[in-house]
Amino acid sequence: MGGPRQTISSASEEDPQYAMMDEKKRRRMLSNRESARRSRMKKQKLSEDLISEVSRLQNLNKEIKQTIDATTQGYRNFVSENNVLVAQKMELVDRLNSLNFILQNVQDVYGVPLDIPEIPDPLLKPWSLPCPLQPIPASSSMLQF
């Protein structure tokens, strides 16, 4: 039982060729680990970038939605105001037609022509001024500084 112990050595310890193969294997393992670490880091960065991009796009989407909502509300207000103005115009046209009908009846009954001149409205023709233009004389003495 107490015999001499034999030390069993691996082949790599005995043969330099095996030792070199073990060293290559160890370097390859380290290289693979480093490559896997870089791959994980790259994947992590890509994930963070995508999360950041999602957040940015959500904020942009929110701003666009707010702009659309504001524009839609403005459009609704415009349509509502336009409908009121169209109704007022129709009422005024009916009123004018009624007044013209009354004037026509008065002319027919009394035989007197009622020529009422149309009042010019500068708002309907903004390019034409309601009063004639008077030339403004300018002299060279007015331009002295």
How would you sum up this structure, described in words?
The chain has 145 residues and is mainly α. The protein has helices at 11-14, 16-110. It has a domain at 14-114. The protein has two helices and no strands. The mean pLDDT is 82.
Key attributes of the depicted protein:
mainly alpha; rod-shaped; 0% strand; 2 helices
How would you sum up the global shape? rod-shaped
Can you summarize the main beta sheet?
A: none
**What count of helical segments does DSSP give?**
2
Low-confidence region ranges: none
Alpha-carbon distance between the two ends: 128 Å
Global structural class: mainly alpha
Percentage of β-strand residues: under 5%
Into which percent range does the helicity of residues fall? Answer: 55-70%
Indicate the radius of gyration in whole angstroms. Answer: 48 Å
Could you tell me the number of beta strands? 0
Main location: nucleus
Domain BZIP: 22-85
Protein name: BZIP domain-containing protein
Biased composition (Polar residues): 1-11
Short description:
Residues 1-47 are annotated as: Disordered. The chain is mainly α and 145 residues long. It has helices spanning 11-14, 16-110.
Outline the fold blueprint.
Elements: H1 11-14, H2 16-110
